[in-house]
Structures are given as C-alpha cells and as structure tokens.
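Minimal example, chain plus calcium ion.
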Amino acid sequence: MDIAVTAKLVRGWVEEAGQLLRESLSNTSIVVEEKSHPSDLVTEMDRFIEAFYVEKIRKEFPTHQIIGEEGSYGEVDNMDGYVWIIDPIDGTLNYVKQKRNFCSMIALYKDGVGIFSFINDVINEDIYYAIKGKGAYCNDKQLENVTTYPLGKGLVALNTKMVMLKPTLSKKIIQEALGVRLIGSAGLEMVQVITNRVSAYVTTPLNFWDVAPGIMIASELGLKCSRTDNSPIKMLEKNPIVIANENTHQDIINIMKKTSNIDV
Ligand code: IPD
Ligand code: CA
Ligand code: CA
Ligand code: CA
C-alpha cells in the first residue's frame, strides 16, 4: 500500500463525511436513540457515517479489519495486519444538544502501529491528521512539536466521569494546574493537547476508538500517551489515559501514584 496515496484518498472521505454531518444539523427529524442510559445516545447519523466509511474501506481494501463504535463488522480480537478504527461521531451528546463540539475520527493501524489518523473538527472545518513519520497537520499547515513544561504552567482537560468518579484526584490535578476545561469529546480534547491549548487530557477508561486516532497524532508530535498507571496503552481494550507533554505527564503520574487509593 502507498501510504501517502491512501491517506489522500481517506482525506477525501473525511471531507465528504464532514460535509454530510454539517448538512445533517439542519435536519430536524434525525432519529436519536438511548443506548445504556439517557446521556449515552446514538443517532441515525452515527450509523450512517460509520456505514459510509465501511463501504469505502470494503470496496478499496476488502481484506482489512474494521472496528467501528456503532457496528458489528465481525469480531476484531487482534491488531494483526491493517486495522481501521472508526468513531463516526465523537461527542454524540454534543451533536444532539449543542450542534457543535463533536468530531468524526478514522485511523489506520498496521500490526498495532498507527499509520495515519484523521480527526475532523466538523463545525470549524478543521481536519487534524498525521501520517507516520511525516508529521501532523491541521488542514495543510504542519503542527509544531509540543514543548515540554510542568503541570503548573498549563490548563488541563478531564472527562466528565473523571470529575464524577475521581473527585479528590481530579481536584489535586486541577489545583496544581492553571485551570480545567471540559468539552465532552475525547477527540476534540486530544486536539486541544495536540495544538497545545491544554497541556494534558486525563480520563477514566475510554474505548479504544475514542483514543486510537488521537494517540496516533499525539505520538507523531512527541507527546506522551499512557494509561494512568504509566503503563502502555492496551490495544482494543478500555484505557484510562494520560496524554500530555513529557513534564506535565510526569507530574500527573506522580499525583496518581501518591493518591492511588483515593476515590476508590
Ligand atoms: C464519548 C466522548 C466523551 C467521553 C465518553 C465517550 P461518543 O464518545 O468522547 O467525551 O467522555 O467516554 O464515550 O460516545 O460520543 O463517541
Ligand atoms: Ca457513543
Ligand atoms: Ca467516542
Ligand atoms: Ca461515537
């Protein structure tokens, strides 16, 4: 496979999906369903965008494995060969309630290593992407490697469950930082770290499709991504993550170590 050619092809799909999502916002009859609880929603657009990507992948690369949040495209239990990871709308609750602050993500891994990855900030029409060894970009502008600085010099992002389930730990992290910002879309929170608008994103366990696209881009920029106990991210599993510049990452891991028995 020619990676540059395939990435260009996929960028076209990502642009088309973004356009479809923007157009869908004026459709007042989008079907919304509850999944596990009232804040866990799926819309017909989540399913439609995932099916849109799957159809393109199946046509071009029929032997590749596909993991999609909304689909059951066969059980994927390994990262052997080429594996596509799709989160068609990340921040579905925001898509429904705010009509903003959501993104669409697609990444390609080969034997467990990120090859390329796209996070489409649909409303701002900004496509963040990285190609392994070729850097990370926002649209056509190359992103700079993030510098390293301590937790006390930046803002942090947390997910809602982190604040709710680990309040003492969350407070300790926020107190040492300059402040906290919550968006409600793992992809967009990771974009905040990638673009150095916040210094870290710290979470309770997130699904692999929530984090795999962002991790690929972050790694390309020299950011540190690990589980909250500082062990490597586990492929295909749920991971509580810390993604940050190196100093901030270390500061957060130190807090985690000191307070590991709090909030349990
Ligand atoms: C959710 C968002 C949210 C995170 C949740 C995810 P979804 O993804 O990324 O920020 O806190 O854990 O499930 O379901 O909207 O794709
Ligand atoms: Ca979901
Ligand atoms: Ca998601
Ligand atoms: Ca989703």
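The mean pLDDT is 95. The two ends are 47 Å apart (CA to CA).
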